[in-house]
Write a structure and sequence with these properties.
mainly alpha, two-stranded antiparallel ribbon, about 0% strand
Length: about 550
């Protein structure tokens, strides 16, 4: 016994290998945040940051969160459309109906709550997969962006740099984080002999991709994670995978490559810190590890996911089971509210048996009736959404017709005014006071519908004050001030980047060669800092 005491004091110490996924999200978010500063310098504000309602008095984005803008997009999309997301401000049910109408089988985004491992990467892939669905749903009028959450999603999902960031994280999900999870949980993997060589190979590949991520832009990159039986964990090439590589233009491809390179640089730091024993320590050469240690660790769990599952389920229960089916939810409510348990307890054995026998016999009938009711409800929702889309189309047509009418009236008397002198000529061409009032109102209405104005300019757009109609002279003065404000750049057209939700299909500002070189240099410095950090961690 004395000779065995030192042996009993020894312990093989390993970290949970699934927590690497949490660290990967943290490091990639840090990398994206730095890259986005470069993008803002070259392309301007990203997505929702350009909307006036999300800015403070100085014009700066007012939501001071520490996450990257890419993660902001991913999280808001999750809140807005994922089952179990934001029930108050989201459009979860409407998006489900929209998907059903357009044959999109399932939602590929999940709520962040109670989903810890790999959730950012999975939702990034899902966000990119659904970005056209979401944009089309808003633009066609099926759903109105009636609150800040939906307007934030509408703006961010149309921002090309943020979509490229989500696509980059989605590519990492498909090629690295998703197969990594399956690899770690496989029983055919030894925690030393299986993990060590694959981690070393992954670190080598990440270092190469941080210099040039072109291989990751190919859908045919070989599987990365090998099991102890020499088979590889396959990449899941589903509809989400296809969406990451289909119909990608050169701009998004370039931005995605930049995002992949900085993320790969950041991940090298993570691996140096998390797998220091496998890369440089006592497990770095598996052949040098004793057979006794290999035997002792042969059945060792490679993660503590069980504890995480318990915590996740507790959060799920606290959220009142958002994934529960409608029929089960109804049954649960009826069972409790009708005191069914107490009623059953009061029945005699014979009566109870009859009730239970009848329930089993009629179960199929009730299921069919419920399905019929559910289908009718879904049909009503589809018809309502189609009606909303039609109303939106009619509204846009009426607005276009009204703008055309105002413009025709303006063109009859000299055309659109570009200066205060033009306003004087415009008024002089209208011979009667009635025509002058009508013409001035048409011109002010035209400006109001074609330019975005703030609270300081709003009074100039009105035709009465304190219940009294404005005179020709007052309207003329107001129109002059509006024209001068437009000339000074104080009013932006409604179809500019900060208001147009179709910018996902438009081009970014074209950079000069000098600007492109400067941008490349800034990104190289970001990657160099991560490389320096990785060396310091080894």
């Amino acid at each position: 016994m004395t000779g065995q005491r030192p042996k009993r004091c020894e312990m093989n110490h390993f970290f949970c290998n699934l927590h690497v996924l949490i660290g990967a999200a943290t490091y990639c978010d840090k990398a994206m945040k730095q890259l986005e500063e470069v993008w803002r310098e070259k392309y301007g504000k990203l997505g929702v940051e350009g909307l006036r309602e999300f800015q403070d008095k100085t014009g700066q984005y007012s939501w001071k969160h520490t996450d990257s803008a890419t993660q902001r997009l991913i999280r808001t999309v999750s809140d807005a459309v994922a089952p179990g997301g934001d029930q108050k401000s989201g459009c979860i049910g409407h998006f489900a109906t929209y998907r059903s109408m357009h044959s999109v089988s399932s939602c590929q985004v999940v709520p962040f709550r109670a989903n810890r491992f790999n959730v950012m990467f999975k939702c990034a892939a899902g966000t990119y997969y659904h970005h056209r669905h979401i944009s089309q749903m808003f633009s066609d009028g099926y759903v109105k962006a009636g609150n800040k959450l939906l307007r934030a999603v509408q703006a961010d999902v149309a921002c090309r740099p943020l979509l490229a960031g989500a696509r980059a994280l989605g590519i990492l999900h498909k090629h690295i984080t998703e197969p990594y999870w399956e690899w770690i949980e496989n029983d055919k993997l030894h925690i030393i002999e299986g993990v060590t060589p694959q981690v070393q190979q992954l670190q080598s590949l990440l270092t190469e991709w941080s210099d040039d991520a072109t291989p990751l832009l190919s859908r045919d990159i070989p599987a990365l994670f090998k099991l102890d039986d020499n088979t590889y964990v396959p990449v899941k090439k589903d509809s989400v995978f296809d969406a990451l590589y289909q119909d990608v233009d050169s701009e998004v491809q370039t931005l995605t490559k930049q995002a992949l390179e900085v993320c790969c640089s950041a991940l090298t730091v993570l691996l140096e810190r998390r797998f220091i024993d496998q890369l440089h320590g006592k497990y770095s050469i598996p052949d040098n590890v004793s057979d006794q240690t290999k035997e002792e660790t042969s059945g060792m769990p490679k993660s503590n996911k069980r504890g995480e599952n318990d915590s996740g389920y507790w959060a799920y229960v606290k959220q009142i089971k958002p994934s529960i089916g409608p029929m089960a939810a109804e049954g649960s409510v009826m069972y409790r509210c009708n005191d069914t348990a107490q009623w059953l307890d009061g029945l005699s054995d014979d009566h109870l048996n009859k009730v239970m026998r009848k329930a089993r016999t009629e179960r199929r009938n009730w299921m069919n009736r419920y399905k019929e009711r559910q289908m009718a409800t879904e049909k009503q929702k589809e018809e309502l959404m189609k009606q909303q889309a039609k109303e939106q189309e009619n509204k846009s047509k009426r607005k276009s017709d009204q703008l055309r009418e105002w413009l025709e009236k303006i063109n009859e008397h000299g055309g659109e005014c570009k200066s205060a002198e033009d306003v004087d000529v415009f008024v002089q061409n209208l011979k009667t006071k009635t025509k002058q009032l009508s013409g001035l109102k048409a011109h002010i209405n035209f400006c109001r519908e074609t330019y975005r104005f703030d609270s300081e300019i709003a009074p100039l757009m009105k035709f009465s004050r304190m219940g009294k109609q404005l005179t020709v002279e007052e309207l003329t003065s107001n129109l002059k001030l509006i024209i001068e404000t437009i000339k000074a750049g104080g009013l932006k057209p409604v179809n500019e980047k900060d208001q147009d939700v179709s910018i996902a299909s438009s081009s970014l500002p074209e950079l000069t060669e000098e600007q492109q070189e400067e941008m490349t240099d800034m990104i190289s410095r970001i990657k160099a800092n991560f490389s320096k950090e990785a060396i310091g961690a080894s």
